[in-house]
Amino acid sequence: MTNPTNGSDQDAGFKAVLEHLFELRDRLLRIVIAIIAVFILLSPFVQDLYNWLSDPLIRQLPHGEKLIAIGVASPFLIPFKLALMVAFLITLPYTFYQIWGFVAPGLYQHEKKLVTPLLVSSVGLFYAGMAFAYFLVIPMISRAAVAFAPSNVNPTPDIAAYLDFTVAMFLAFGISFETPVATILLIGMGVVSAENLIKARPYIIVGAFVIAMFLTPPDVVSQILMAVPIWLLFELGLLLSRVFAKHLERFRVEKAEHEAEQTIHDSTMPVAPTAAAAATAASAAATSATANDVSAWENDQHIFEETTPTQSTDDEAFRPLTDAEMEAELERMDEEFKRMEDNFRKEEQDKLDKDKQN
């Protein structure tokens, strides 16, 4: 028999899931609409956008040289592809705002205090990484590529290849500039301490060069230009973690207090009664109303026996049950609970049969 309480709980949980899905759909639609709106506004300027993007490379090419387009539709599609990427970057703060609006109601106050400033700073650091790549890294790589080109080679890259290269550099440096945020998060959440990070500094520096090796083109210049900022940003994260040590410590204390309160709440929360537990409670209530001492069950009838309470004396010593006695007692209790559950189900079935007959 289905418990109506459980059914209502399941319906409430299903409605809550649907509400979250509807909210997620609405927020995703807002993000998409914002990107499309900005893309439409940028559409008249797609040629200027690509000219601005290719300017660091054009300035390094021989006088009069330009980029080439190998694909038939590349001169038309590539600028619009760039405009779509720029629209996404422009709406990135709004995207994070919508994501935050969806996630924030499920966070606790101490989590919001830590995540909010880090979320804002992560957007700014990502933009800073892209600016660093555009104004410093890409011109240096372009100058080196043109300078070391053989005399029989005319360096005229394809517009699609150059767009892919710049996007990869923007993403690589934008993500690498998130190092301070990652450092503060690790320290603030207690995953690692600042002292352990200081001890592991040599390994982190080597790891920065390894990461730069995978994220940058296969040249030493771009690898150094990425590894050194990662290392410096790591040091900045350590410095900021010391500056905001009091705030991080307050966050850890609030987190520990909340976890302790949650543990106490879970331990004191009443458990939903099952059929066997309900049968036990109902039978115990019915039995205690009839007699004070109950000794046994037999079929559907209650057998009551008067018992004389015995009190222990000082001469009596406590003797714990042996393993065999404990197993026998547990088996007896298990059988008794099964009989009680069967009786309860039989009574419920009888009631249902009577209701159907009426």
TrEMBL record:
Pfam families per UniProt: TatC
Subcellular location: Cell membrane; Membrane
InterPro entries: TatC
Main location: membrane
Compositionally skewed regions (Basic and acidic residues) per UniProt: 329-358
Spans through the membrane: 28-47, 67-97, 118-141, 161-188, 200-218, 224-245
Keywords: Cell membrane, Membrane, Protein transport, Translocation, Transmembrane, Transmembrane helix, Transport
Membrane-topology annotation of the record: Multi-pass membrane protein
Residue span of region Disordered: 306-358
Stated role: Part of the twin-arginine translocation (Tat) system that transports large folded proteins containing a characteristic twin-arginine motif in their signal peptide across membranes. Together with TatB, TatC is part of a receptor directly interacting with Tat signal peptides.
Protein family per UniProt: Belongs to the TatC family.
Oligomeric form and interacting partners: The Tat system comprises two distinct complexes: a TatABC complex, containing multiple copies of TatA, TatB and TatC subunits, and a separate TatA complex, containing only TatA subunits. Substrates initially bind to the TatABC complex, which probably triggers association of the separate TatA complex to form the active translocon.
Name the record gives this protein: Sec-independent protein translocase protein TatC
Source species: Thiothrix lacustris
Classification of source organism: Bacteria, Pseudomonadati, Pseudomonadota, Gammaproteobacteria, Thiotrichales
